[in-house]
Write a structure and sequence with these properties.
Largest sheet: 7 strands, parallel
CATH topology of the largest domain: Rossmann fold
Order of helices and strands: EHHEHEHHEEHHEHEHEHEHEHEHEHEHHH
Radius of gyration: 21 Å
Number of domains: 2
Strand content: 5-15%
CATH class of the largest domain: Alpha Beta
Number of helices: 17
Structural class: alpha/beta
Helix content: 40-55%
Number of strands: 13
Strand order of the largest sheet: 3-2-1-4-5-6-7
CATH superfamily of the largest domain: Glycogen Phosphorylase B
Shape: globular
CATH architecture of the largest domain: 3-Layer(aba) Sandwich
Oligomer: single chain
């Protein structure tokens, strides 16, 4: 079986789609029952510092062609097979879709939060993306989603029929569990770069994710600021600047030594930060899966996250759950996650046990089954 797959998210992003596609490709690369051909046609250049799987580098075909030009050439015969050669099927993994003429199509839909609520994306996002996703879903033989909640949304919004939807949970075993020889130095360098004053005896609260309203970081910051001063805790936001967070950015700009932010970090640095943290806080309003939560659980972190989300559905027993819309509850549960030693021990023990079910090898097995079913 020759599988063409859109590798572009893996070339341009550290987290989100980029992480999922990169780890999927890495896991698929070890299989002998299929041949991967990675589509990378784009005008953008690969983001520096990304560690691409060897099979991606070997099979990648990445002519410098803007997406608009690709689609302008489609009526003249250009499509993914113009770049990859003949493939048995093509797997779309992005929101910017490559032109496909002949091959059966598989589509991954990571979430439909932009249809659930227009406030969770920048103005105009849904208007731009929804028609593209619906058109691609109509053409696809198979639609892959990461959890039952997204499957329900696909059906509820009539994006694809139930017989074409397959639920394939993501993996979270890509970060090393081993302490690095230079771990303390890595953490010290990162917090110093961020302007955070952190000593060995101070608690660290990590907040992963792009800064945007859906991630609820402003409310988390307010909850943190209500903690008793005697805790001497520190808060570090890890991720890039998104949109709609002017007040959050204003408060982060104070640089008071207690609260700080740092951009995207390497896998080694992220693992080191997780192992240093006392709490990982991810009180997001809506997610397709919530991968940072599962990364933290795998490292035996105490994780504060949201009720009524995929994280709660899949890992609720290992999470300190909270209503993300309740400021008092956020402050109360954050303090409990930091101070209740018995509860902390329960969560730290549950995290690795729950997260062990989510591996990239299992995800790759599921992809192979979906590919085979698509061609049957």
């Amino acid at each position: 079986m020759i599988v063409g797959i859109d590798a572009r998210p893996a070339l341009f992003g550290h987290t989100g789609f980029g992480r999922v596609v990169r780890e999927s490709l890495r896991a698929l690369g070890g299989r002998t029952d299929l041949e991967l051909r990675c589509y990378g046609a784009s005008w953008r250049r690969t983001t520096p510092g990304l560690e691409l799987p060897a099979n991606v580098a070997q099979s990648l075909r990445a002519p410098r062609l803007p997406a608009r030009l690709q689609h302008a050439l489609a009526p003249l015969g250009f499509d993914v097979e113009s770049v990859l050669g003949k493939v048995d099927l093509f797997h779309h993994t992005d929101l910017v879709f490559a032109p496909v003429r002949r091959a059966p199509e598989v589509l991954t839909i990571y979430d439909l939060v932009y249809l659930e609520s227009r406030e969770w994306h920048d103005p105009g996002f849904a208007a731009r993306v929804e028609p593209r996703v619906r058109a691609r879903a109509a053409a696809a033989h198979t639609v892959i989603v990461p959890c039952e909640r997204v499957a329900d949304a696909v059906l509820r919004f009539d994006v694809a029929p139930a017989d074409r939807v397959h639920v394939l949970p993501l993996g979270c075993d890509h970060l090393s569990l081993d302490t690095l020889p230079d771990e303390d130095q890595r953490v010290a360098q990162l917090v110093a770069q961020a302007g955070l004053e952190l000593s060995h005896d101070q608690a660290l609260v990590l907040v992963p994710g792009t800064r945007e309203p859906r991630k609820n970081q402003l409310a988390l910051l307010s909850a943190f600021e209500r903690l008793p001063a005697a805790l001497h805790a520190r808060l570090l936001l890890v991720g890039g600047v998104g949109w709609g967070c002017r007040e959050l950015e204003r408060r982060l700009a104070r640089r008071d030594g207690r609260v700080a932010s740092v951009g995207a970090v390497s896998d080694a640095d992220w693992g080191a930060l997780l192992r240093r943290a006392q709490v990982v806080a991810y009180p997001s309003f809506a997610e397709g899966f919530g991968l940072p939560v599962f990364e933290a659980l795998a490292q035996a972190c105490v994780v504060l996250s949201s009720h009524d989300t995929p994280m709660a559905d899949l890992a609720g027993e290992a999470l300190q759950l909270v209503d993300p819309r309740d400021p008092d509850a956020l402050a109360r549960e954050l303090q409990r996650a930091l101070c209740d030693d018995e509860r902390r021990a329960e969560l730290a023990a549950a995290g690795p046990r729950v997260s062990a079910a989510f591996t990239w090898a299992a995800h790759a097995d599921g992809l192979q089954r979906v590919y085979a079913a698509t061609l049957s």
